[in-house]
Amino acid sequence: MTRRTATTRPAVRGTKAVRLAAVTSAALAAVLTGCSTPASSAGGGAGGTALDASCRGTKTEAGLEITLAVSPCPAKGGGAAATAAITVKDAAGKAVEGAKVEINPEMPNMKMKGGNQSAEAKGDGYEAKLVLGMPGDWLVSVVVTPASGKASTAAFDVKAE
Ligand SMILES: [Cu+2]
pLDDT per residue over 121-137, tens digit each? Predict the structure, then answer.
């Protein structure tokens, strides 16, 4: 009798574990639409300019100083809405107003794209919603097209937890 009990209980637990795994997989599959391969955790980010500990990074591109600040910090994956604050300065350090600003997130390791947003003017900069579909290493490209002049793109590594 004791032997039978011992073999039955783990079997029940095993079934629950399988069900839980199935539910988790289904939820992940819904989130991972567009992902073709698992993340390679090379640890080097996604190939852009790293953000500092306060989730802020600056890159100068074609004479424009483009700063991205992500909040909350650290960024969250899984579809929660975050905010991308973008400031653009010219070579003289003056805020560039009236530009068209877009943010294009992608996961290069997965050939996964999505969540492009147009930023709105906010204060002396711009602000956009930032939606990262899953945790991992994102490359967020900020595309700035000044009212007069060519588009500049600054890409930042954003790690979503
Ligand atoms: Cu992905």
Answer: 999 999 999 999 999 99
